[in-house]
Specification:
binds zinc ion, alpha/beta, single chain, 310 residues, globular, 2-enoyl-CoA Hydratase, Chain A, domain 1, 12 helices, 15% strand
Length: 310
């Protein structure tokens, strides 16, 4: 009786949850996809192009050169100043979210280089209380804009959020004004801000910084909107058009500038920054319309150099 012998040796059968998941079912096409292959393709289904949700550090690795990345303001933590309690205490939700994500709040801010160009990047984390925007998210975005102004470099924000964090009441709503004002300062300083909207970007986030980019880029199929579709349907008492609140619908109606598949995101942003950045001619020179600045603009408009050949 072999199994009795194995038991006496202390060998236990592997539990199902201990085994690594090698295959995943794609919600887009229903195909079973090999996980490694999916990861190699930035977690986009190779069969149908469905974009699987990825973690915040996934976007940092996608967009920046790994050696260049430095996180800042990671120590800023939320406070339950209203002593809020619904089904759960807010203070307990914070504790659980920190344990789950290893982050103090729903946004990380880093500096690093994108194709060799210095940028400030903020990425939201949906796993932290639905990527909700509270006082910490607002403060970190404001400080990230300050760093971008100090370094005179572009700011990128990857949004992934259910909206304002209601457990912080009016303070969370104030972050809409705070981040918008900071982005206006960035704009006055002539620095580009690129907003990347992923699935989902809703509520107060879509109603503030996510839609304020000089260029607003979305991932294909991303849910983007303010109120939920069901609430809108009940309020207006009408059926909503097909594809309502999806990236493609928003692009068609002028809310977005571009839809870009995740594997091409870095290259696309690099191309946009090549065009927008005042690295060489300062934006002031461009505004003055000096001949030299115009020449440089022409040079910038020419197609970007194929980096693969270098
Ligand atoms: Zn698929």
């Amino acid at each position: 009786m072999v199994w009795f012998k194995r038991k006496s040796q202390g060998l236990v059968p592997q539990k199902k949850k201990d085994m690594p998941e090698l295959w995943v079912k794609c919600p887009g096409c229903g195909e079973i996809v090999y996980k490694r292959e999916l990861e190699r393709n930035s977690n986009v289904c190779t069969n149908c192009g469905h974009h699987f949700r990825i973690k915040a550090d996934g976007y940092v690795n996608l967009l920046l050169e790994p050696d260049s990345v430095q996180e800042f303001n990671e120590e800023i933590a939320p406070k339950d100043f209203l002593k809020f309690k619904a089904k759960k205490r807010y203070s307990e939700q914070i504790k659980a979210a920190i344990k789950k994500t290893g982050q103090k709040d729903a946004l990380i801010s880093v500096t690093g280089t994108l194709a060799g160009r210095e940028v400030v990047l903020c990425v939201m984390n949906f796993e932290y209380i639905g990527g909700s925007m509270g006082s910490v998210v607002g403060e970190k975005i404001a400080l990230a804009a300050d760093v971008a102004m100090e370094k005179k470099c572009p700011l990128l924000i990857v949004s992934m959020s259910g909206g304002a964090r209601m457990m912080e009441g009016a303070v969370s709503l104030m972050q809409m004004a705070k981040t918008s004002a900071k982005l206006a300062q960035l704009s006055d300083a002539g620095l580009p801000y690129i907003s990347i909207l992923t699935d989902p970007t809703t509520g107060g986030v879509s109603a503030s910084y996510a839609m304020l980019g000089d260029v607003n880029i979305a991932e294909p199929g991303a849910l983007i909107g303010f109120a939920g579709a069901r609430v809108i349907k009940q309020t207006i008492g009408e059926d909503l058009p097909e594809g309502f609140q999806r990236a493609e619908f928003l692009l068609e109606h002028g809310f977005l500038d571009l839809i870009c598949p995740r594997p091409e995101m870095k290259e696309q942003i690099n191309r946009i920054l090549d065009f927008m950045c005042a690295d060489s001619p300062s934006s002031k020179e461009l505004k003055n319309g000096s001949v030299e600045a115009n020449k440089l603009t022409e040079a910038k408009i020419s197609p970007p150099v194929d980096t693969d050949k270098n």
